[in-house]
Amino acid sequence: MEEVCLNSEPIFDECDDYEVDGDGAFVDNGNESGEAQSKKNPPLPTVGLEFDSFDEAYDFYNVYAKELGFGIRVSNSWFRSKRKERYRAKLSCSSAGFKKKSEANNPRPETRTGCPAMIIIRLVDTKRWRIVEVELEHNHPVNPQITRFYKSHKKMILAAKKAQPQLHPVTEVHTIKLYRSTTLNGCSGCSNVDQREGISSVDHLKHLELKDGDGHALYNYFCRMKLTNPNFFYLMDLDNDGHLRNVFWADARSRTTYSYFCDTITIDTTCLTNRYEIPLISFVGVNHHGQSVLLGCGFVGFESVECFVWILKAWLQCMLGCSPQVIITDQNKTLVAAVTEVFPKACHCYSTWYIMQRVPEKLGGLEGYETIRSQLNKTIFSSLKIAEFETSWTNMIKHNALGDNKWLQSLYEDRTLWAPVYLKDIFFAGMVPIDANESFKTFFDGYVHKHTSFKEFLDKYDLALHRKYHKVSVADLESRNLSLELKTRCNFELQLSKVYTKDIFSKFQSEVEGMYSCFNTRQVSVNGPIVTYIVKERIEVEGNEKEVKYFEVLYETTEVDIRCICSLFNYKGYLCRHALNVLNYNGVEEIPARYILPRWCKDFKRR
Questions:
Q1: Residue 225 and which of 195, 236, 303, 406 are 20 to 30 A apart at CA?
Q2: What is the pLDDT of residue 310?
Q3: pLDDT of amino acid 312
Q4: What is the C-alpha separation between 136 and 124, in angstroms, rounded?
Q5: Positions of the region Disordered (predicted)?
Q6: Distance (Å, rounded) from C-alpha 192 to C-alpha 174?
Q7: Is 200 contained in some domain?
């Protein structure tokens, strides 16, 4: 595997050169039938591309020139006079300029054409050489099949011969450190047979299936973003054949956002699950307005533990090694294994929303489906205690004769990872549903469909981020400048109207209003600092009927939290109506600071 990283501060060891055949060089030898391997299109020189040294930059342009069929030379160099240190250079086509007129009797014919093709490289502050100007067009024909050797190409072969003994004559050597010509052409060479497995790689592709121009579109986009945004991060992963296998990137805003909202994230693999053309994986969090925010994304060439581990590690390194507290995924087993390996200390849960989305697919063909779905919803979202969930689940299975249903069996085995009643002490920042009517949308919903191409996605990616960022700006403005209307005379409502953002306050406000449907709050037991209360509430069930339910609230009188059986505090991050009733019952006039999460506040950056 090769990792190609062009960030100003690379996150992986740059000393690991690209190795093919164990020698850090790519050698094209004639095969037994005397036929040369087909050449691949080399990556284009692009403004913003960086190299560790002048020699690397020269070698890169020389390889590119050899593939296209022209030679190069250093036509200009700039040095700092005191130290005689080169800080700028112009690498030109060997046909650039014109030779001086000779006064010899038989002067050599003019071979130069004044060709404008060139690149200019400059030593930047990071002590790396960066391409700052590019001209790709020639004013003369170039032909990669040309038999003539240019001086720059001869140097390349001689250097390789000195560096290593060869069992067979060297016909062509490309010394490459960070680049392979096949990198951006993921589909080239797909018909090669993998001798180790005895199968054609066409049948088992383990890299990105790129169409013509997709690779260059990705690469050019990354270079352009890196130029305009130095904190933009991207990383490419190549397999042993030089195919582009995985890609990850995150912009500066995503990296900054994660520094504030790193508690809970969702790893969205909807495009993989639904077999979209682009194998997109997205890292999504929630900001102080309760809005979804992008924390990075990538393309996975093959759904294996190795590929998922690579992209998770790339994301973690991008975020400076700061692991989230809670990670939500679907039930993809390979992804689950990768999450366990990369984030061993994080709490990993399955998304209830993902599971409920699969109910029609898995159970839709059963007799009495509507009844089964209703009972399943009630079991999942109405069970306030574990015993209630277990009893309700057992009754559902027996009543509908579902004991042999493999999908329901697997759900039950993993129930501690997704059923709300088992996850009361976990903060999800509103990223899981707490009732059957809640719906969620993926971050790129409306921007990506099943046949969206790589190139098309890059355009929609920018559009999606622009619109999302605009919504954040509008929400910030409204939270700062709009006076929020109070609906009760409760001090709790007045207190948090000055603290929470508008969207979060409106959700908390509903809980304050809900206090008035609660009644008969009473203490039932004391166990040290923990006092248990029962709160009754009239809840609307089917139709207009009202049902009285009992909610148990554990109130710790010392310093930690109110722990509420209905768990709205833990899910949403603000006190639910039952907990507010307990505070009111104890004569508390203002919500203690420990119950106010900074992530929901207008001034979250200062808290």
A1: 303
A2: 95
A3: 97
A4: 23
A5: 23-44
A6: 21
A7: no
